[in-house]
Amino acid sequence: MSTKTKILIVMGTRPEVIKLAPVVIGARKRPDEFETVVVTTSQHREMLDQMLETFQIAVDFDLDIMKPNQDLRHVTTAALDGLHGVIGQVKPDWVIVQGDTTTTFTGALAAFYHQVPVAHVEAGLRTHDKRQPFPEEINRRLTTQIADAHFAPTTLSRENLIREGVSEDAIWVTGNTGIDALFLTLGSEPGETAPSPTGERRLLITAHRRENHGEPMERVCRAVLRLVDEFPDLHALYPVHLSPRVRDVVFALLGNHPRIELGEPLEYRRFVEEMNRAHVILTDSGGIQEEAPSLGKPVLVMRETTERPEGVDAGTVRLVGTDEERIYTETARLLNDDGAYREMARASNPYGDGRASEKILAALAR
Ligand code: UD1
Ligand code: UDP
User: Fold this and answer.
1) Burial of 39 from C-beta contacts in 10 A (0-12 / 13-18 / 19+)
2) Which residue has its alpha carbon closest to ligand 2 atom 7?
3) Is any atom of ligand 1 closer than 6 Å to the C-beta of 70?
4) The pTM is what?
5) pLDDT value at residue 3
């Protein structure tokens, strides 16, 4: 009988590839201990392939489910159906899912139907508001109900799990594997960045959340327009998510300004460079809230709630919602007031030391 642990790693979207890459790379370096199989639902297509290429991850099964403008019912049913088939064929010892996407939840559910244990990477994040973010808060709560091993990034996420009745023995506090990916990419921990030689200040923007589609996204765009008009040294870079609901609004409102650069989603290493060059980051992303404290970059989060309060406590992250006036005022304050800027631009690592994947693999090998 084989003494190896057979793991099936499930991914569907850009952030899942980034955050599971360190686990896949680490496991594949230990072929005596792990048989590693990777399945992608391909809930994302181009954005997933871009990251698989960056991290050189070979995929064993690709379900290729993405449709333009897909709704949640499509992603849920197609992913569940496909993953159920793959798990039945591979018969792994563990199914590993990450985060809170629909791929994450359906991966856990399909494993449960086969009675295969589930390991949840990035477990225990909560806003405690079931509609925000939508549908991620429910995806991660349901995944918690199913999972057998919970890899919590911080002690706070561990406490959330314990409060919901998860046994302490089933929780490991590991840090976030996103920080492993960041350090892997930077070659080491980040250092100081040199100021721009042209004297421009760069604003980096990303936004994609479903609850921000429509009017909130329009308000974000109007705030960005006001900022570039008010600050002549400001250059805005917005690599636009491929969702048509995001692109239609962003290109219509921001497509015509000489100091607003709209582009395609950036390859991860290029995006990390841009985070490093940025003066301020405006985002509704989860992952960027975790990376920015390590880089010491002020992040204004265009959401009403966050499941990542550690970055807020560290001082690098501030919630500003999607009100146009508030986004404008808070960003303008950082651009006008050096003291306020320095207060936020402090590097810290609330999400771990870049060794999360090592700890996860050690637990799974046991
Ligand atoms: C998904 C996740 C969200 C995660 C985000 C990361 C769910 C419900 N949502 O949201 O939790 O934060 O990914 O970015 O799991 N598209 C492309 N090419 C791509 C990717 C997307 O064309 O490579 C377009 C397609 O038209 C697709 C649409 O974007 O139908 C939406 O993709 P989907 O995965 O449903 O939602 P996201 O908003 O990307
Ligand atoms: N990212 C990237 N290129 C981009 C925008 C983001 O590589 O153009 C990275 C970013 O550094 C982070 C992750 O993608 O690691 C965040 O993904 P996203 O915002 O799509 O999802 P979320 O984190 O909100 O689930």
Assistant:
1) buried
2) 268
3) yes
4) 0.97
5) 86
Ligand 2 contacts CB of residue 266 (under 6 A): yes
For the Cβ of 265 lying below 6 angstroms from any atom of ligand 2, the answer is yes
Hey, what amino acid is at 249? V
pLDDT attached to residue 48:
98
Q: How far apart are CA 176 and CA 229, in angstroms?
A: 38
Tell how far the Cα of 70 is from the centroid of ligand 1, in angstroms: 8
201 within ligand 2 shell (Cβ under 6 A) = no
Instruction: Give tens-digit pLDDT for 95-109.
Output: 999 999 999 999 999
- Name the residue with the closest Cα to ligand 2, atom 16: 287
First to last CA, the chain: 17
Q: How far is the CA of 242 from the centre of ligand 1 (A)?
A: 8
Q: What is the DSSP letter of 348?
A: -
pLDDT for 78: 98
Structural domains in the chain? 5-176+352-365 (3.40.50.2000), 201-345 (3.40.50.2000)
Write out residues in the chain with pLDDT < 70, as ranges: 1, 188-197
